[in-house]
Amino acid sequence: MTIFWHRRDLRTNDNAGLFAALRKEKEVQPIFIFDKNILNELKSEDQRVLYIYKHIQKIKKQYKEHGSDLLVYYGEPKEIFKQLIAEHKISSVYTNRDYEPYAKTRDEEIAHLLEEQDIKFRTLKDHVIFERNEVVKGDGTPYRVFTPYMKQWKKELSDFHLKTYPTEKYFENLKQSKEASTLISLKEMGFSDEQTQDFPSIEASDKIIKDYENTRDIPAIRGTTRMSLHLRFGTISIRELCQQGRKNEKYFNELIWRDFYQMILDHFPKSADQSFKPQYDNIPWENNEAHLKAWKEGKTGYPIVDAGMRELNATGFMHNRVRMVVASFLTKHLMTDWRLGEAYFAEKLLDYEMASNVGGWQWAASSGVDAQPYFRVFNPTSQHKKFDPNDKYIKKWVPEYGTDKYPDPIVEHKKARQHAIDTYKEALN
């Protein structure tokens, strides 16, 4: 028997690892593991677990239609594989690569366990178009600046890289199952099965992609595709989205940013919780608890910051332009460690992906790869006037704006900006 292990690829179509397993092997048994090491860090109402669960149900049904089944486990992956080895004669295990530090450590342990049992462990590229060493500088070292990376990425790209994997052609090689296995419930794992947040459509809008550069910065309208959640869990294929996204270069470049940040995290795993530029860890963050609380609750007195934080808390989503503003505000105006903001986003964002989130936060804090210079500090009032001039976005999330109930700013922009620049300059010198 061959195992195909679903992880961040919750689909049966255009799946590189599944395609390779089905094409090369017989009796392919798909599995999914609800990983306790990850789930134990989450709150019971976390909607991402529900989102995953719904897609597990969907692909389980798809496998059943072909006489097979998706076996679903709950526990620590290493212990689950020990159980599988004891119960079945396994010749090989296939899966798609993941570039986050925990995932790489987990896969090394699984590979070692399987090797001891003479079981082949094959991993494939599915989550990105180009990974680790496929787009590098002439001397073989990784790019640290996006624009030259993007140019080289486009030079390397051919139709081959965006070609979809026709998994359906080989479904006859799925292991047949006479009766379906029972699926553990969310409640049994300690999670709520109540949906309290909307999940965006899995179809990317051609109209939004076409108009992307004109609408992407306006938070009051639906001007972005909202595909990030689906890319995060692989419920859509990056290859198919790139095929569609090529119609607009600005949108296409955003997908390349995603590859860039995945590559950076893979090469520099310490950047997950350390400044990419080490000297930025010398900054004496103030980490004022009252300021952090006001930021989290959307009560800073800066309307665009507050609207963004309230949107995040209510929906699990925040508009990308606003993400930059709130991150700059926390790290510069409030002199709060970017790691505290990154951790809050990790808790709240439906589309949380470590590589892009860390990349974005370190960009805002000026500590990251190809980051904005430390003396660039977003003016939240100017951002408000430029991108929400009619207060449509603000009024949706901050209905008390313009009344006596709305708080005064917790810091004064000019003073906070100068204080940040002076503090950064002194720490870096």
Automatic annotation (TrEMBL):
FAD binds at residues 212, 224-228, 251, 254-261. It comes from the Bacteria. Binds 1 FAD per subunit. Belongs to the DNA photolyase family. Its cofactor is (6R)-5,10-methylene-5,6,7,8-tetrahydrofolate; FAD. One of its GO terms (molecular function) is deoxyribodipyrimidine photo-lyase activity. GO terms for biological process: nucleobase-containing compound metabolic process; response to light stimulus; response to stress. Residues 1-129 form the Photolyase/cryptochrome alpha/beta domain. Keywords: Chromophore, FAD, Flavoprotein, Lyase. The record marks W285, W338, W361 as: Electron transfer via tryptophanyl radical. This is Deoxyribodipyrimidine photolyase. InterPro entries: Crypto/Photolyase_FAD-like_sf (IPR036134), Crypto/Photolyase_N_sf (IPR036155), Cryptochr/Photolyase_FAD-bd (IPR005101), Cryptochrome/DNA_photolyase_1 (IPR002081), DNA_photolyase_1_CS_C (IPR018394), DNA_photolyase_N (IPR006050), Rossmann-like_a/b/a_fold (IPR014729).
